[in-house]
Amino acid sequence: MTVRFKKHSDLATVPTYGTACAAGADLYAATDKDTVIPPHETVMIPLGFSIEIPDGYCGLIFARSGIASKRGLAPANKVGVVDSDYRGECMVALHNHSEKPQTVAPKERIAQLVITPFLHVDFEESDDLSSTDRGAGGFGSTGSH
């Protein structure tokens, strides 16, 4: 599958896959100087491009495990969603979960994009739902030991 994108800035970097089997394509900061993110704050980091995701698919923006685990940097909304009809510039709301300021360098890999199909469903109100063994058991209800 080919996904078209349009650069909005010369600072934009084409998303890249780290390996042939990687699910997520690395996303790069489209900045020309260091960006400091104070502890427990969120900063919008531009990617410098817009993207044309095919109908029936969406782009999911996830944290990169390295900077999340080592530096506490991850998307503020946990998973960003890029809809197929969105044509504006893509950005990452990068949150600093650590206790010290973190610096994002120009062209640094800051997140990853997974293009995936999704189901668009019709919701129907009902007075009854089918029964299951689990029933209404909520958080932690399936792990008894």
Characterize the structure shown.
The chain is mainly beta. It is built from one helix and twelve strands. It has one helix at 65-71, and strands spanning 4-7, 16-17, 25-28, 35-37, 42-46, 49-52, 57-62, 73-75, 80-82, 91-96, 102-104, 109-117. The strands form four sheets. The protein has a five-stranded antiparallel β-sheet, with no helix packed on it. A three-stranded antiparallel β-sheet has the order 5-10-8. A two-stranded antiparallel ribbon has the order 1-6. A hairpin with a 7-residue loop joins β2 and β3. The longest helix has 7 residues, at 65-71. It is globular and about 55 Å long. The N and C termini lie far apart (44 Å).
Assembly context of the chains: single chain
Order of helices and strands: EEEEEEEHEEEEE
- End-to-end Cα distance, whole Å, is 44 Å
Q: What structural class results from the helix and strand content?
A: mainly beta
**How many E strands?**
12
List the helices and strands and how they pair.
Layout: E1 4-7, E2 16-17, E3 25-28, E4 35-37, E5 42-46, E6 49-52, E7 57-62, H1 65-71, E8 73-75, E9 80-82, E10 91-96, E11 102-104, E12 109-117
Antiparallel strand pairs: 1-6, 2-3, 3-12, 4-11, 5-10, 7-9, 7-12, 8-10
Question: Summarize this, please?
Answer:
This protein has one helix at 65-71; strands spanning 4-7, 16-17, 25-28, 35-37, 42-46, 49-52, 57-62, 73-75, 80-82, 91-96, 102-104, 109-117. The protein has 145 residues and is mainly beta.
